[in-house]
Amino acid sequence: MTRVNRYPTKADRISPIGDLKLTTKPTKILLVLAALLSGCASQPYPPLPEDLEPSQAGTIGGDRVTGSDAQSRQRSLVPGFGEDLPLPPDPASLPSAKKRQLDIRLASQTFNYFEDDQLVWSGPISSGSSEHPTPKGRFSVLSKDVNKRSGSYTNYFDQPTPMPYSLQFYGPYFVHEGWLPGHAASHGCVRLRYEDARFVYSRMRVGDRVMVAD
Known about the structure:
The protein is of the alpha+beta class. It is 16% helix and 31% strand.
């Protein structure tokens, strides 16, 4: 954004948009609006395929994805869980497993991931709010979509909301990457931070068990 080289007058301060018109070009105004109005409270989603160069494409869990390990994001800042959470292990470094299970704990807003009945990784989540509760029960992974976009919710530009690293476990309910505010705040899906969503997605397979309980 162009730096304002004068102290704004009272007229300038009537509206942020009015101030932008005086100090920026139209294209820069659009960029500012995009940052302010992006869907789902400015969730830190990774770029989707159309946003990256072809040379950045790779694979995760047998699916084509964008970006690279060298360009992966820094550790997530998750309110209520500290500012610097440890990173999950490299999925490729783990031995294959015969049994995989993801447990979602609503009361503690955490998940536990097991392989062959051994705890492999845990982390924070954000499940459905009281108005849109996450269903409880015993489910299984129905489908996987590394670059899914929502079929029910859109952002301010009327574009489907991104839901990266999605694991469908019941009807329109998914485990996927999303913003973690430190409490239950989604429309029913289970949000994980980027690093955890990427790890769980890479390890789990269609048919694997998903448990959701208090």
